[in-house]
Amino acid sequence: MGRRLGPGDVALTTLLPARPSAPAPGAAPAGQARVQPPPAWWFAVVPAVFLGFFFAWPLVTVLARGLSSAGLDVLGSAPTWRVVWFTLLQAVLSTVATLVVALPAAYALHRLAVPGRRLLLALLTVPFVLPTVVVGTAFRALLPEGWTGTLGAIVLAHVFFNIAVVVRVVGGLWAHLDRRYEAAASTLGSRPWRVLRTVTWPLLRPAVLASAALVFLFTFTSFGVVLVLGGPTTTTIEVEIYRRTVQLFDLPGAATLAVLQLVSVLLVLVVAGRLQRRLAVRQRLARADVAPAPPRSAVDRAAAAWTVVLSVLAALPMLALLHDSLRVGERWGLDWWSALLQDGPSTRDVPLWEPLRTSLSYAVVATLIAVVVGGLAACAIAYARRGGPVLDAASMLPLGTSAVTLGFGLLVTFAVRPVDLRGSWIIVPIGQALVAVPLVVRTVLPVLRAIDPRLREVAATLGSSPSRAWRTVDLPVLGRALGVSAGLAAAVSLGEFGATSFLARSDAPTLPIQIGRLLSRPGEAGVGMAAALSVVLVGVTALVVLLAERLRRPGQAEL
Amino acid sequence: MRTSTTRLVTAAATVASALVLAACGSGAGTSPSSTSASSTPSAVPSTFAPTTVRLLTHDSFALTESLLDDFEARTGITVEVVTGGDAGELVNKAALTAGNPEGDVLFGVDSTLLSRALQSGVFDPYESPAASGVPSELKTATQEAVTPVDYGDVCINVDDAWFAEKGIAKPATLDDLVKPEYRDLLVVENAATSSPGLAFLLATVATYGEDGYQDYWSKLRANGVKVVNGWTEAYEGEYTVGGKGSRPLVVSYASSPPAEIVYASDPKPAKPYSSVMESSCYRQVEYAGVLAGTEQPEAARAVVDWLLSPAVQADVPLSMFVFPAVKGTPLPDVFATWAATPASPLVLDPAEIDAKRSQWVDAWDQVTLR
Known about the structure:
The structure holds 2 protein chains of 2 kinds.
Chain A lengths: L39 H27 L6 H4 L1 H34 L5 H9 L6 H11 L8 H24 L4 H9 L4 H29 L3 H6 L7 H11 L3 H29 L18 H29 E2 L2 E2 L2 H7 L11 H31 L4 H9 L6 H11 L13 H23 L3 H9 L4 H30 L2 H5 L8 H9 L4 H33 L3
Chain B lengths: L1 H24 L25 E7 L7 H11 L1 E7 L3 H10 L8 E6 L3 H6 L3 E2 L22 E13 H7 L19 E4 L5 H28 L3 E3 L2 H8 L10 E5 L2 H7 L11 E18 L5 H11 L2 H11 L2 E2 L8 H6 L11 H20 L1
Parallel strand pairs in B: 1-2, 1-3, 6-7, 6-8
Antiparallel strand pairs in B: 3-9, 4-9, 5-8, 5-9, 5-10
Helix pairs in contact in B: 1-2, 6-12
């Protein structure tokens, strides 16, 4: 689902090159039968059924209904290509800008002993899991006059949301790079710049590429940011699909654009996957975090300072929300906070605990679905002898699909008994889980790939059956990775706005939906209460992210 | 078994009292047929075996909760409110599932979307008998397939204090907006992505005609009109009321001034910060109808009748900030005092809107944004 995918956080993952496991000294001699994990299809069944049923089927149904020769007119019109060009332009600029801004921070936070390191890391991560509806208005107020509605505003917002992707993905690998490579180069007389260029960069390149591909994917299919912070002339394909579907009811045109977007995303995934495999460097990774060193050189100090500045900038919109929630007319007060707690007589008065409870219970269900489906999919991809890359790309596709298209698809597809899910609450967590599955896969996959196959061989030598060997070797590692991904999936679910707002539901609104409702009222109360509720959402999300962070610690040692 | 019997007894008892209340309530100004459904001698029975009716509506729907409970107690019908998206999304979803609907009743299709809904066969034609209390100008396009429930106007809102402070006269007509003294003061919503944005475009089409509206917009553009994507961005982001924006003229609603008072912090201001430029007002009517393919058309009709009942009609202003469709419904004070009621709001024929909207929006896009 392509809407900004609000909280799509691959952020916490360590996206490693395709085959990072070091050639183990004394590995099994060639010719000896390798002990394989259980066959991939064991794991593929559940994800295939789930994604086939809730993603592929609805998508194909709605596209088949829309696609016709009439839709092809869209491809012949100049405005369409202007939209495509703008989508591409802003995505490329956003990706490059995010890399430039975030790489020094990735270095500083993972290699240097920067004071308050964990706080800075958290500050840079939280924006990624915040819904656009929350940050949009706060961000607008902070932008310099004349910036709103420009390409600059969109790029700036995309950078803000995606810094975490680069910091986490690249930093994750950077922390594990064996320093002896760099030390050896230095000893041989290389200057720092040359060490970076000839040693560090080639080792790091696959992770940089992986993070760039993700940022590109998120920004290429961006919806909320473009709608709220862009302007009427800055339109992406995703926004155009929405406009054609909802405003013009031009289903053929919308379907054509949806296919165009899907194909573009698939192309990017395949190319990035290939490049990543080609650039992958077999390297020995440090088993745990390399102890960070205090910043010594001027470059180190600059990187550390830059990171602090960046974290402060990232915190600004959140501080603005806090400010708005406490500002009552010309004075300070807790009026909006106490208003949040009250239940009024109208169906529109929703006391705080209601959306909170709804959001949390959806998060639990969505997380369960996403972790089971995504975890099994990751196993299938990791163990597949052939077709792994294809499965891998396929699991990412929900991120490249228009939320409106998929929403309509779910609507037309599940309209027949006994699977008439329309209006049922379960459709909402299912929609959220579809957004979260790719991120769960991204989190779990590198961990699985890093498992030393010799462990399974040892288990087999000691008389374990293949499935027993898998249970004793892979499962514990998998468990920790799944814990991390559960935190992510919960954050995605908590912040998801696009799909949730579109899917019909009969019960209380979620936190982001209620924030959106409050914002659409004239008068101070709307803005004030929306700000207060946003602070609550930020708090809950941050808590979930931090919990996931705790789980990551022991898991990391396995890499 | 036991619970349903008790329910029936309670229902019967409450129906009796409701009849009394309804009879007392239908006082001055309302014709007998505009009273609540239960007193209407139509084919619709006044009680049902306990059943649930799904009411599909947009995200802005709201009513006083006790009204739903009362209706359930009186008729045995539980109204399950199903929301999802704005009015455009609502109607398109209904059109896609015409004949096999997600619910039984749809409320919230407005006059800019009505033709699309009627043409797609979304509704099982039904006009509530209570619609006899609705002025005929709200019923012109319904083809007796749907029932008007409320109406509201999209109008330019004016920051009174800003104009007083600068010593500039407030603009009074659309023509004024292209004059140099109002340069860079107006913010409007994107007609392609926002419902008030589209309504304001239609207001200019209604005023200047198909031949003149493009010319008007190119003058507006030359005079520095700002276009943003949605109401929230315009009102909360660019409008001067509230202190964040820099433009004292915004496209909003005739009911925004009373909303400013209702949603102000204590102590409430004596009067709203904004006033309404009445000549810019474009009228939107919201309708309710029975969805074609429902398995309980009788109960669905009872829900449509209920939406026109005096209690719901009286509740509509402060719940959804729109005017009740039934003539003579008493208005709350804050609404009666501060909501604008333009004598001759701008309107266009829904069929014409449906036929030409994408052409108008595309042309508007070219003139205003490119």
